[in-house]
Amino acid sequence: MNKNFLALRKQQRIVVVPAGRGAIIRLLLSVIVVQQVLFPNHDSNYMNVFLFALADEEAVGLVKMCLFYPNESGHARTDPILNPTSPSDHVHTFYGPQNFHASTTSENLLETKPEYSSSPFVENQSLYWHPSIYRVTTDENGVKTYTRVNNLDTSPYYRWNTNTLPETVPFPPGFRMISHSDQYGITAPSDFNEMLFVECCDYDADGEEICSYTSTDTSLIFPQQTCDFLSIALRMPTCWDESKGIGTDDPFSHVAYTVDGSVSGECPAGFNKRIPEVQLFVRINDYQGGTYQLSNDSDTFHVDFMSGWKEGTLENILANCAPFGDPGYNPPCGCDEFLTETVNPAEPVCDVDVREHIVDEATDVVTVLPRSFNSDAEMIPKTWDVDPPFDCESSGPGIDCHDSPLTFNFKKEPRTCSELDVTSTLCNKKRIKSHCPAACEADWWCSKDSTGRFRLANNGKFKRCKWVARRPNKRCQKTGICDTCKLTCKNVDACISIS
Predict the structure, then answer these.
(1) Are the beta carbons of 341 and 428 closer than 8 angstroms?
(2) Can you give the pLDDT at residue 7?
(3) What gap in Å lies between CA 85 and CA 349, rounded to an integer?
(4) Exposure on the CB side of residue 417, measured as CA atoms within 13 A
(5) How many CB atoms lie within 10 A of CB 6?
(6) β-pair partners for 197
(7) Is the pTM of this model over 0.70?
(8) What is the rounded CA–CA span in Å between residue 204 and residue 201?
(9) What are phi and psi of 133, to 5 degrees?
(10) Which pairs count as long-range contacts for 35-41, CB under 8 Å and 24+ apart, including other chains?
(11) pLDDT score of 395
(12) C-alpha distances in angstroms, 127 versus 24, 165, 248, 355?
């Protein structure tokens, strides 16, 4: 078997590796469907299923760098690329610096101190954003309520090939671009529709992922079913026409996808430079199913990017980070040895601070989505140069902060919060600092649920707060649960904190 092919886990997980041939990917998905129809009662726990995705279409030499952000930096109806002087058409969710005021410049990003950014690495203060995601519920009178989805996990994946020409270059100062999931014409091959990738997955008893919904369509269709997490990933172009500039006046046409859609493919005529492919990967934990929609009421997903890389850093990575692992679109993550880890990335900016310093309008829970055509809110003039003046504490005043006493696993080894302090690199991981907010000095999580899996004290089984929420009156009484699922258990009368 070609080692570039992707072997699936025993649970029939459907994994699609984008490789630039939409028809073949759709055929592969059809094969899985046929198998499930022909053998509906086959015990998948004892059957290995292999999905042959076109990983071998990527030339040898591909490198992947993964930047795992612990949380978003905030939400606001701003867009520093398209609307630098006024509110944008719809609400966006930002990752990176807390400097997401409309008038934010690339210089502002580069001046950002690590403590004012959710970036996991000091040298990268780039700003990424996409339309905010809302869960929609309808009451008995037909009135809709839109609840913004918060606490998102994200990772920009950077990919480039060390063996293809033209050589990949770092983003120049001030570079910006915008990519849409339905981009066609000169900026995308006509048969290439794997730019957007969506999957709905659950964890089994062993912590393995079982994905029951997978889509590579150009439209973002939110599944109706519930799952432990929903993942959304959009790939951005990797070819650059240097003569068209850095995207200041036109953040679209200066970049293009390769002719065949792969990272290593040939660039269209006139696009004389390669830049790293940025794939923004967003995860909604504890996906509730039902109705979700984007803040612009569209099924087209888009991602905006403003480079904030410290000069020389990305150039050094591109020159010295060597490929390793099996070739293909998804080699192991690497290159972090060239970066300085942020000790304590910033929590999301509170909505009250956004309303005081950026745009004074509600965006968290609303009955009408704020848009440019239905809101008269104006952009508040920026009052700071470098350090933003945000000072609210999301956990609220008077909150006692304590850690969960329950064990969690890291790299299959049991760990406890008592082993950690704020200097531990584990505290940069969302699931761990939400479990150990006192040890990690992560005040924002002091009154919220642990986002990871924990081991029950009585029988050793691994559970999540989602499991507790199904029967809170009973399960919050179990040892340590009140200190672990604080938000879920806060109104349970029998809940007693053992801290």
Answers:
(1) yes
(2) 30
(3) 21
(4) 25
(5) 19
(6) 233
(7) yes
(8) 10
(9) -105, 135
(10) 36/12
(11) 43
(12) 34, 28, 15, 20
Spacing of C-alpha 256 from chain mean position: 23
Q: Which are the contacts of 169, defined by CB distance < 8 A and separation ≥ 6? A: 240, 273, 274, 275, 315, 318
Q: How many CB atoms lie within 10 A of CB 383?
A: 10
Non-local (6+) Cβ contacts of 328 within 8 A are 4, 6, 17, 55, 56, 58, 62
Reading the block at residue 472, the tokens are: 């809170």
Residue 4 pLDDT > 80, yes or no? no
DSSP of 84-131:
SSS--SS-EEEESBS--STT--HHHHHT--GGGB--SBTTB--EEEEE
Q: Which helix (H) or strand (E) holds 199?
A: strand 196-203
Q: Which two tokens stand for residue 288?
A: 């509730």
Helix (H, G, I), strand (E, B) or coil at 485: strand
| DSSP sequence for 254-291 | TEE--TTSSTTSPPPTT--EE--EEEEEEEEEEE--SE
* Neighbour-count burial of 101, counting CB atoms closer than 10 A to its CB (0-12 exposed, 13-18 middle, 19+ buried): buried
Q: Which of 338, 347, 337, 343 is nearest to 424 (CA)?
A: 343
**How many other CB atoms sit within 10 Å of the CB of residue 409?**
14
Nearest Cα residue to 132 out of 235, 278, 282, 234? 282
With vertex at residue 362, the alpha carbon angle to CA 361 and CA 367, rounded to the nearest 5 degrees, is 120
Closest listed residue to residue 53, CA positions, set 13, 32, 24: 24
pLDDT for 363-404, tens place per residue?
999 999 999 999 999 999 999 988 999 987 554 434 578 899
Count CB-CB contacts under 10 A for residue 493: 7
DSSP category for residue 493: T
Number of other CB atoms surrounding residue 204 within 10 Å: 13
Q: Which two tokens stand for residue 34?
A: 């046929």
* C-alpha to C-alpha distance for 441 and 436, rounded to whole angstroms: 8
Q: Read off the amino acid at residue 210.
A: I
Q: Please, are residues 49 and 42 in contact by the beta-carbon 8 Å criterion?
A: no
Among residues 213, 276, 243, 362, the alpha carbon closest in space to that of 63 is found at 276
Beta strand segments in 392-498, E: 408-410, 413-415, 454-455, 462-463
**Type of residue at 355:** R
